[in-house]
């Protein structure tokens, strides 16, 4: 979902502001940046060929306009191996730098359910060549999301089931308490690398079981206490 902006004073017409709906409200949450934490569940790190005990947290970005909320994922070009990754989305209402861990949750507006869709073949080629991942991660419609649920309504989920079904078959299953880096730690660490801003969202990592999709598949994601996401591959 995109919110229109005034075109006055620009030499080309600016694009609408990428936004997420807020559940139970007609207000929109403007998306500033999308930070994704990599390999934040041990079993997923292992299935990707890494030892999670030896890694500090690391992050990559998607583009704000990669967010989609219409329940459809157009199968992208230049790939034959697109993977799903179900994640809890953390939306920030306040920014800052050097945010202490014990103050980090004060910066959270709310939570959602999202998919980090990945052109795995292109990501794999980039890894082999030592190149950035954007071609595999930051493409159009690569971040399907639900509306956000305010933390004032649900608190700050630290445990609860995370799952994804493809055409009714369970493919990913985990629990928020299995995250290596918890939400406060992610926010604090990121704020040492970047100046966080209101409107930033963090995709908090995915459990094991990621896999490929084809056109016609229906993906059903779930994060306990946060919501459900249904996306059809078109």
Name a few traits of the molecule.
Fumarylacetoacetate hydrolase, domain 2, 6-stranded mixed sheet, alpha+beta, metal-binding, Fumarylacetoacetase-like_C, Fumarylacetoacetate hydrolase family protein, 234 residues, metal ion binding, acetylpyruvate hydrolase activity
Can you describe this structure?
This protein has one domain (2-233): Fumarylacetoacetate hydrolase, domain 2, CATH 3.90.850. Helices cover 15% and strands 33% of the residues. The chain is built from 5 helices and 19 strands. The protein has helices at 42-47, 120-129, 134-137, 151-154, 183-193; strands spanning 2-3, 17-21, 28-30, 34-37, 59-62, 67-68, 72-73, 82-84, 86-92, 108-115, 118-119, 143-144, 149-150, 161-166, 169-175, 201-203, 211-212, 218-223, 227-233. The strands form 5 sheets. It has a 6-stranded mixed beta sheet. A 5-stranded mixed beta sheet has the order 7-19-18-14-15, with no helix packed on it. The chain has a 3-stranded antiparallel beta sheet with strand order 1-2-3, with no helix packed on it. The two termini are 18 Å apart. The mean pLDDT is 94.
């Amino acid at each position: 979902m995109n919110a229109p902006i005034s075109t006055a004073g620009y030499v080309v017409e600016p694009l609408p502001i990428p936004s997420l709906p807020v559940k139970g409200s007609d207000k929109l949450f403007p998306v500033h940046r999308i930070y994704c934490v990599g390999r934040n569940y041990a079993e997923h790190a292992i299935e990707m060929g890494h030892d999670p005990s030896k890694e500090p947290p690391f992050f990559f970005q998607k583009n704000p306009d990669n967010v989609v909320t219409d329940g459809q994922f157009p199968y992208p070009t230049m790939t034959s191996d697109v993977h799903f990754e179900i994640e809890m989305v953390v939306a920030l209402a306040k920014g800052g730098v050097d945010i202490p861990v014990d103050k980090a949750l004060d910066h959270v507006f709310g939570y959602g359910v999202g998919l980090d869709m990945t052109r795995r073949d292109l990501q794999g080629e980039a890894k082999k060549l030592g190149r950035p991942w954007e071609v595999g991660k930051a493409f159009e419609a690569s971040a399907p999301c639900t509306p956000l649920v305010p933390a004032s309504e649900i608190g700050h989920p630290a445990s609860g089931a995370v799952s994804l079904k493809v055409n009714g078959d369970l493919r990913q299953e985990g629990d928020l308490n299995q995250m290596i880096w918890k939400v406060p730690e992610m926010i604090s660490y990121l704020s040492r690398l970047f100046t966080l801003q209101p409107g930033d969202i963090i995709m908090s990592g995915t459990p094991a079981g990621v896999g490929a999709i084809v056109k016609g598949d229906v993906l059903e994601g779930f994060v306990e206490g946060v919501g459900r996401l249904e996306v059809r591959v078109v």
